[in-house]
Design a protein that fits this description.
This protein has helices at about 5-15, 45-60, 75-85, 115-125, 140-145, and strands at about 20-25, 25-30, 35-40, 65-70, 90, 110, 130-135, 150-155, 160-169. It is of the alpha/beta class. A hairpin with a 2-residue loop joins strand 1 (about 20-25) and strand 2 (about 25-30). It is globular, with a radius of gyration of 17 Å.
């Protein structure tokens, strides 16, 4: 069983950052989307993936948020990516115990909607001119941002409020 801090972070990610409504501890809904939160106590191996996907399908999942306590083997990761018709995000429990975005020194992250990209490019000319942030960065993963997204990052510095944009690669 995951710690309370882990579930609090998951709830924050799904409700505050992604706009889902919590229906139960393991089910979040946004319109037609049904995000199932699943927790794996043991190591996840290739053979564990099929029963997991069947359980998610049975519960009507359109997306899944998988919390892994120990590890997931490369074979299981490959099968997860190839077998599902919906996205499954995998987080290790240690990535969720402390919510890095709620820290007082953490900047505010937002995904820039695609229709606003042209406005950002007027300033920076193209995505090539923007600073980059890796798709595996924990803030990017919390937001659910995908490659080629643009993030607006607002921080408080000694000179005042600073706004910067980063391209997810």
């Amino acid at each position: 069983m995951a710690s309370e801090q882990t579930y609090e972070t998951v709830e924050y990610i799904l409700t505050e950052l992604r706009g889902f409504t919590k229906e139960s501890r393991n089910l979040y809904v946004r319109g037609e989307d049904r995000m199932i939160v699943s927790y794996a106590v043991n190591e996840i191996k290739k053979g564990d993936v099929h029963p997991l996907i069947q359980q998610l399908d049975k519960n009507g999942a359109t997306a899944a948020f998988l919390i892994v306590a120990h590890k997931i083997t490369p074979g299981a990761t490959k099968v997860l990516k190839s077998l599902t018709s919906f996205p499954i995000e995998v987080f290790y429990e240690w990535q969720l115990i402390s919510n890095v975005l709620k820290h007082e020194m953490s900047p505010r992250y937002e995904i820039v909607p695609p229709e606003s990209h042209a406005e950002v490019f007027r300033t920076f000319a193209s995505a090539d001119k923007l600073p980059r942030i890796r798709s595996q960065d924990i803030a990017v993963r919390y937001l659910g941002a995908s490659r080629n997204s643009i993030l607006k990052i607002t921080s408080m510095q000694s000179t005042g409020i600073v706004v910067e944009y980063k391209f997810v690669h």
